[in-house]
Amino acid sequence: MGTRLYPLTVDTSKAMIRFLNKHLVDFIIMKLARQGIREFYLGVSGYVNYVGLYDHLGIGERFVYKLGLHEDELRIRYQPNIESRGNAESVKLIMDYYNIREDLIVVQGDILFDVVLSDVWSFHRDKDAYMTVMLKELEDVTKLRHYGVADIGSDGRIRRFVEKPLTPSEAPSRIINTGIYILSSDFRDFFDYGVGRRLYEAGELDFGKHVIPKLIECGYGVYGYVSKGLWFDIGNPEAYKESVRYMLKALSDEELDIDFSFGGIKFMGRRPISRELQRSIIDRIQRGELVIEGDVLLGRHIFLGRGVKILNSIIDHYTIINDHSVVEDSVIMDRCSLGSKTVVTNSIVGRHVRIGSNVVIKDSVIGNNVLIGNDAVIINSKIWPQKYIPPSHSIKEAVLS
């Protein structure tokens, strides 16, 4: 359900949220496809998850084109129209429906990562593992409460998992579950008998909460591969903002679909109309008509009025920012409109949001398709999709759902 990312995922699958002016799932699939993965199965459940993903991804045609493959070399398929009670049951349904009898990699839909899959696979094979869990050492121990924390032996075997410990002292280490797994083909039969069957009948079908601890308890070979590569959980708005800022610097221009930069500004768009817009923005910066500083990503077909200031922010495609407005340390998703003299700081503004003039938005998250009247003030609040904020209305420390 992606509840931790509300209001961004109230009406959107978490894999389909906009991230650096693309859909998050695009980064995940391209990361895997560039390392040779060619069969993708999406564990979708419910209307929001399925419709958005299917309409965007189809059977994978866009990735075939981007990677220069033949049309039958890469395929995307979907979970059958059967409701699943957890991510482990989703995998079971897919393995049964598509008759998968091979080892497979499972990746959660709200993470970004940089891992060499061949290294993880070699580790999995050498250990003859039933399941390999990719792990990551977490520097900030206060965040351990958000993750499953592993106790691993010197041979890499996981001795136990503590799921979301309440305090750092309850955690056996700083090594956390990243939500990336390699499963042996035998996993397909796990829920058909014995302890797996009892989990299935009880509806205890989440990998982190139920399945991995039970596999360990019953002596299955569950191993942990500790990755040194980049990894971000984009499970809540704060993590989203942190990962956006980091990944804008860390990802290559190829991964960002960027082929032109000016200082810290990265421009999207390669066609003549985009090139003309990019030249115009640079000219206006040099003439002092615009201020764009820090690490900035600008999408295609945007409009920036006179005196606009953009600092360390992401502006998605087809967005309009009118005269003398300021966007700082924020993400403005696609097809938004900001009136004149509006200020947005340290916030996330969802898709197709209409914001009037003289509006202040600070430390907030605005859902999709919200309408905000002139002179409104929104501070440290969350606004659900489709809401209307009247002119001169003030919202502080609130959730408007």
Description:
- The structure is a single chain.
- The protein is 25% helix and 28% strand.
- The protein has 401 residues and is of the alpha/beta class.
- It has two domains: 84-109 and 115-229, Spore Coat Polysaccharide Biosynthesis Protein SpsA, Chain A (Alpha-Beta Complex); 259-400, UDP N-Acetylglucosamine Acyltransferase, domain 1 (3 Solenoid).
- The strands form eight sheets. It has a nine-stranded mixed beta sheet.
- A hairpin with a 2-residue loop joins strand 13 (258-262) and strand 14.
- The protein is globular, with a radius of gyration of 23 Å.
Quote the distance from N terminus to C terminus. 16 Å
Query: Radius of gyration from the CA trace?
Result: 23 Å
Q: What percent of the residues sit in helical stretches (DSSP H or I)?
A: 25-40%
Q: Going across the major beta sheet, what is the strand order?
A: 13-14-16-19-22-25-28-31-34
Relative strand content: 25-35%
Give the tally of β-strands: 34
Major sheet characteristics: 9 strands, mixed
Low-confidence stretches: none
